[in-house]
Design brief:
- It is built from nine helices and two strands; from the N terminus they run ββααααααααα.
- The chain is mainly alpha-helical.
- It has a two-stranded antiparallel sheet.
- The longest helix is centred in the N-terminal third of the chain and has 25 residues.
- Bound molecules: heme C (2 copies).
């Protein structure tokens, strides 16, 4: 570069670049800048060796430390699982009815159960467990199949009328559209509406039809039968509805409410946790009534 000329004012060699008479001086880079620059290059090389860096066709180089954000998440999950292992084992071993005696275990079960409920149950039973048409309210003390802890856990574990679990709770109301005449069904609709308001289940022509066709499952007094999940027809609580149109539809075509078997998808600790959670929502029974 000795052929480059020197700047008259500073005496520094120029690079030879010139714009409108302004020339670029060829000053050396500041030393601190240069060393920082080399350090970043060295850092870059070391980083790409240690950590995931170079993109390949379907993935990227893994780096010798084998670090990944996914691995980090997995590690944290494993740590949480380990911290929970003790109490989850206790939850699985303890008799369900005895869980409330152990305050720590009960509060763990209720909290874990609430999380399970939000994830797996709320889409059918509602986020507050208030239920919807065809999906029972789990806050009240009206139970189709049973409200003691063991019974709730059984319902959750095996489900209802599903085809996946041979131990699922099962029953089937006949479609009376094939059995009775339309006028008889209309009479029964009136009769059932009367029963819900305290009417005598055996009175009149409706009572006769009721006792002959319905009492086997809904009971002579109409209070339902848990062995077959038949609802109580004498309260004002309806699973499907108490208006004339809905009752006509229910009695003509029957219903077939299906709930999945959660024992096939959740582990036993989660089943017990969510059963404990549901039980303490308000309607839980200590033992099944006689
Ligand atoms: C796909 C919808 C669906 C989901 C999800 C679901 N259920 Fe249900 N569940 C039902 C239906 C439908 C019934 C009523 C079946 C019947 O008519 O007997 C029911 C009934 C119940 C009962 C019986 C209530 C009684 O009166 O005896 C309990 C307890 C229950 N569910 C708890 C749960 C829990 C806990 C979960 C979450 C782990 C859950 N359900 C998830 C649909 C569902
Ligand atoms: C074999 C047993 C069985 C017989 C017989 C039977 N039911 Fe049912 N009934 C059930 C079951 C089980 C349910 C709940 C169905 C479900 O949730 O899928 C039900 C549901 C109902 C409901 C819905 C209640 C609600 O809360 O919405 C009405 C109403 C009803 N039955 C009326 C009758 C009448 C009237 C008769 C006689 C003509 C009758 N049932 C005969 C088993 C029976």
């Amino acid at each position: 570069m000795s052929q480059n000329k020197k700047d008259d004012v500073t005496g520094v060699e120029t690079t030879g670049h010139e714009w409108d008479g302004i020339e670029e001086l060829n000053n050396p880079l500041p030393r601190w800048w240069l060393w920082t620059f080399y350090a970043t290059i060295a850092w870059g090389v070391v980083y790409t060796i240690l950590f995931p860096a170079w993109p390949l066709v379907n993935s990227a180089t893994a780096g010798v430390l084998n670090w990944s954000t996914r691995g980090q998440v997995a590690e944290r999950i494993a740590a949480v699982d380990e911290a929970r292992a003790g109490i989850e084992a206790r939850l699985v071993e303890t008799d369900l009815a005895a869980i409330p005696e152990d305050e720590e275990l009960h509060s763990y079960a209720v909290n874990a159960g609430a999380a399970v409920f939000r994830t797996h149950c709320s889409q059918c039973h509602g986020s507050g467990a208030q239920g919807a048409k065809g999906y029972p309210n789990l806050l009240d003390d009206a139970w189709l199949w049973g409200g003691a802890r063991d019974e709730i856990a059984y319902t959750v574990r095996h489900g209802i009328r599903n085809e996946d679990d041979p131990d699922a709770r099962y029953s089937q109301m006949p479609a009376f559209g094939d059995i009775l005449a339309d006028e008889e069904i209309a009479t029964l609709v009136d009769h059932v509406q009367g029963m819900a308001q305290g009417g005598d289940p055996a009175a009149g022509p409706g009572g006769e039809l009721y006792q002959a066709n319905c009492a086997a499952c809904h009971g002579e007094t109409g209070t339902g039968m848990r062995e077959v999940g038949a609802p109580n027809l004498t309260d004002a609580i309806w699973l499907y509805g108490g208006d004339t149109e809905t009752l006509t539809e229910t009695i003509t075509n029957a219903r077939f409410g299906v709930m999945p078997a959660w024992g096939l998808r959740l582990d036993e600790a989660d089943v017990r946790a969510v059963a404990t959670y549901v039980h303490q929502l308000g309607g839980g029974e200590e033992t099944a009534p006689e």
